[in-house]
Task: structure prediction
Amino acid sequence: MSARRAALLAALLLAAAPARAADEMHVMVKNGIGRAVVVELHGETKIWPGGDQLYMFEKGERKSFPIDCREGEKICYGAWLYGDDRVSWGVGPENDRDCEDCCFSCVDATIHVIELKP
Result:
């Protein structure tokens, strides 16, 4: 078989393979800061919620939301006071800060809890 035919066959096989669906997990944020905060998640190739939007949590609020991610993908959170990004947690508003315990792996059908504390 010629190299050209082999490449064409490989391309056809790849095109016929079903696309792998994204895994879905939930993230729960508990805001224990005492003021409203905003949160953004940073994956390896994606940001949640994306599109210049942020998740907002009022003082004491806790809620969860789904994210579609790849199994094993590293995800880090950035959180900061609503209206004041100089006070932040995790990787911060620009995803450029070092952090301890602010990253987790995507695991399908699970819930990861983020507890924000002063």
